Amino acid sequence: MYLTLLTASPRSLCKHLTGLVYALARPVLGVSLICGVINQASAEIVIPPSLVSSSTTQAPSELAATQYLDDMLQLLKPAYSQLGISVWDMTTQQAVFSYNNQSLMQPASIQKLLTALAATKQLGQGFYYQTQLSTYSEHPIDKQQVVNGVFQGDIYIEFSGDPTLEYQDLQQLLASLSNLGITKLSGEIILVSEQDNQLQAPGWVWDDLGICYAAPISPFIIDKNCVYGRLSTTGYDKTATIKMISNRPIEITNEAYFINPVVAQSQYKLAPTGSVYAQANSQPACQLTLSRFDNNRYHLSGCHVGAKSLPLAIAITEPALYAKNIVDKQLTALGIQHKAPMVLSRSQITPTAGQHYVIASHHSETLTDLLSTMLLKSDNLIADSLLKKVGEAYYQAPSDFARSSQAMKAILYSLGIDLADANLADGSGLSRYNLLSAQQVLNVLTTVYQNPEYHFLLDTLPESGVSGTLRYKRYFNKSPLKNHVFAKTGSMLGVANLAGKIKASNGHDYLFVLIENGLSPQIKKQQKAPFSAVFLQTMMDVPRN
């Protein structure tokens, strides 16, 4: 524990840190020096004068938390990445430490904290998505209106952008037509939604668009707008086989193949370990490439080293067409004759006569449960679907990513959180255009903590070693951090962020925001522990203010 280390003399502390933290952080964080200069002849550590101060020799109980964290950061600060840090004592309700906390940086998924708070404020905890099967008629639809199995009116399937709607849910809605004795629909089958043609937010990486964590955000969402399958070998250097699960209405062609690892290994060239040449030649001999085309058509090419089958998870390209094809398929499976389904926006519907009657409806879970899933699993689809719903509720009109992001700024401003200098492009944090400071994220956390109606959001954060994205996260799933950190992760290429609360051994709880940008894959690969884990370990023994 760092508490015992800090009671030692500066020289013994420095020696211990040199053996412990330096060995941990040097290859991990790229720090240029921990305590001082090692004299190669005598192996003696010379402490820089800047670190020899009265605070260095104080016992932990006498050392101010701010000075303590500042001193420890100087020891642990990475050389190549950029940091933004804010720490706030939940007991005294005072800021105790900040570093570069006003700089705007990429938040990645800690942006979901903003989305969660804005959605709760605008939509309310009882909000839920509703998908309806309806018609316009002079009377509520019943079996008396079905003559010889034929229903004369139009049928509307009203989608709401429910990110949790599943294939079976839609099937149950349509089965209610069979329950009325309908075997033929003479009218139109109309899929209805709010007008929305923006399926991806500005700043989403092109390479991600075929992957399910970047599935399109649409009013039409079925099974997360993702299809699954498996790629299996039929022998090395032969075209592999693809088996898609559940026979979803997409088309995928394939010329991918598997190659023998021994053959692949022979293609490597010898080079000095760690050299740039070695890095250039250490890439896989081949890779798989998924090409996307219109009408939900895909082509898989390239190769994979080895013989083990691979899971496939492919994002739908055109959600409206996908929904139409599924409705068509499900009605056929129910034995109901029908016309080809069409898609209309709500503003395009002009019923000739009658009132709007709901035949059947499906409700999602309430917002509280949706946010729990979003924060625990870092669910991008829920986050961005909620952002659009927030914009729609705020403007009382259909809303795209840009308008919804401005609505989120306005909603958070009403809670005292000023994001005038920030840049918000989506609700999930996937966009590379998002820019937030550590202080702005901390303001969200303090608002959540200080207002009882939002406090449940802190309770739903992943717990280190127990739940969500922190359950198996390296160094967080074991002592001393296990069961002490409750935080939202935020990770993408070059980004490793964490924001939440930590229980310290001094009896205080702290809200914290750790933003690290510019972390190269090469340095991350060399790390023995992430910076966030090392810094939070030092916070476990932060002295009282």
TrEMBL record:
What Pfam families does the record point to?
Peptidase_S13 (PF02113)
What name is this protein filed under?
D-alanyl-D-alanine carboxypeptidase/D-alanyl-D-alanine-endopeptidase
Tell me which EC number(s) this protein carries: 3.4.16.4
For this protein, the record's NCBIfam families field holds: PBP4 (TIGR00666)
The similarity annotation says: Belongs to the peptidase S13 family.
Q: Does the keyword Cytoplasm apply?
A: no
For this UniProt record, the keywords arranged alphabetically read as follows: Carboxypeptidase, Hydrolase, Protease
PANTHER family reported for this sequence: D-ALANYL-D-ALANINE CARBOXYPEPTIDASE (PTHR30023), PENICILLIN-SENSITIVE CARBOXYPEPTIDASE A (PTHR30023:SF0)
Which is one GO molecular function term here? Answer: serine-type D-Ala-D-Ala carboxypeptidase activity
Q: Which organism is it from?
A: Shewanella metallivivens
